[in-house]
Write a structure and sequence with these properties.
The protein is of the alpha/beta class. Helix content is 50%, strand content 16%. The chain has one domain: 2-Layer Sandwich (Nucleotidyltransferase, domain 5), CATH 3.30.420.
């Protein structure tokens, strides 16, 4: 585990003299009906807020849970009327959803979410492997995180110049290490990553954390839009909702051309370094006195 992938209690966040620092608390949607391999989509969703707001959200979220008489929130339990939600009816669920949306909206700058069409992702994996030798595509979960990361960096670049963004993900997902690798390769390859200047740190924490319960709540809300066909990619990063839909058109028109361009840039960079090294060796040879 590298220096920037730390436990929440050790998460180092840069201080901002203007108190505009962003700390992103984001979690994958963990409802098994949407994360197992036969599900049509996988979703990752969460909120963006200034550092100080998370303590306020924690207080308000716990107050909300107390108001409804539940010790914690898990979307899958609420939808299936299990655990503390066993005696709930639809009216109580809708009342909780209204209050939950109000609490989260009051304490955050905006929401961020990315949905990946699994069938389109399978098509993409097949196509890119044929086009680029030894290329290892990210998992569906990893692509969800990657798109959320891109949206958040675009937000920082547009509205908060000079700031950086940190990420908090819930523990437990089988492909969490893929998200960590995506963060690392973008942060440490500034010549090839447009997000590198805006990335600071990444942390993991148990899903019981209030901000991650709120993210699970939002992911559940957003998945309803996805399955109903109402989920579309954002046209701007200036709104309250930042969204990315990774369907076949996205993979065909944006993802594959972007990868091919990046591969060419890396080849050109490697060739330039080899050429410069060769020229230095030749110059050194010419400068040596004849024996």
């Amino acid at each position: 585990m590298t220096a920037e992938i730390v436990h929440l209690s050790r998460m180092m966040v840069p201080r901002s003299s203007k108190a505009r620092l962003l700390a992103l608390f984001i979690t994958a949607h963990l409802d098994e009906s949407h994360t197992h391999k036969s599900a049509p989509f996988e979703l990752m969703a969460g909120y963006v807020a200034p550092e100080a707001n998370w303590a306020i959200l924690d207080y308000d979220w716990k107050e909300l849970l107390g108001e409804f008489g539940i010790p914690h929130f898990h979307a899958v339990e609420m939808e299936n009327r299990r655990g503390p939600f066993k005696k709930w009816n639809d009216a109580r669920e809708q009342a909780f959803r209204r209050r939950g949306r109000a609490v989260c909206r009051a304490n955050t700058i905006c929401s961020v979410s990315a949905a990946v069409d699994r069938q389109a992702h399978r098509w993409f994996r097949s196509e890119i492997k044929a086009l680029v030798k030894k290329y290892s595509p990210d998992s569906v979960y990893g692509e969800c995180f990657h798109q959320c990361m891109i949206l958040c960096c675009a937000l920082v670049a547009t509205k908060y110049p000079g700031e950086k963004v940190s990420f908090l993900l819930a523990t437990g997902h089988a492909n969490l290490t893929n998200a960590i690798r995506i963060f690392q390769r973008n942060k440490h390859r500034p010549k090839f990553s447009q997000t590198a200047p805006y990335l600071h740190a990444m942390a993991i924490a148990p899903a019981e954390l209030s901000s991650l319960q709120a993210a699970d709540f939002f992911a559940n809300e957003t998945m309803r839009d996805v399955l109903a066909g109402r989920f579309k990619s954002s046209q701007t990063v200036l709104g309250r909702q930042l969204r990315a839909l990774c369907d076949q058109a996205f993979f065909r028109d944006k993802m594959i051309p972007g990868i091919l361009e990046a591969q060419k840039k890396m080849r050109d960079h490697a060739e330039a370094r080899l050429r410069a090294s060769r020229e230095r060796r030749e110059a050194d040879a010419l400068s040596r006195p004849a024996s």
